[in-house]
Amino acid sequence: QVQFVESGGGMVQPGGSLRLSCIASRSIRTIYRMGWYRQTPGKQRELVADITTTGTTNYHDSVKGRFTISRDNEKNTMYLQMSSLKPDDTAVYYCNAVASGFQYWGRGTQVTVSS
Q1: Tens digit of pLDDT for each residue in 5-18?
Q2: Is 60:47 a contact under the CB 8 Å cutoff?
Q3: 34, 57, 68, 87: which could join 97 in a potential S-S bond, CB 3.0 to 4.6 Å?
Q4: Strands 10-12 and 109-113
């Protein structure tokens, strides 16, 4: 079992930057794939980016070139660096991983992009 706690959300103006962090309750070294998802009211949760233990990354088309996902196995932490933020990026962002056949989610952190 593993628990995740997200942090780093907040309100930012369009064009601004934020860095989200997801801290795990145990080592993430053996968790093959971890990802960031986001959700807005009335819409399905969507994958923003994910990363494997080998460092292979995958991004939603809408964030390519603006967001960077990374993980630090020594700190049991995954990050999402978000730049050139747009109002459409406004959402609750969730940390996700599958471990030992179970899917785990954090509680989310709100990101609001508004002038």
Answers
A1: 999 999 999 999 99
A2: yes
A3: 34
A4: parallel
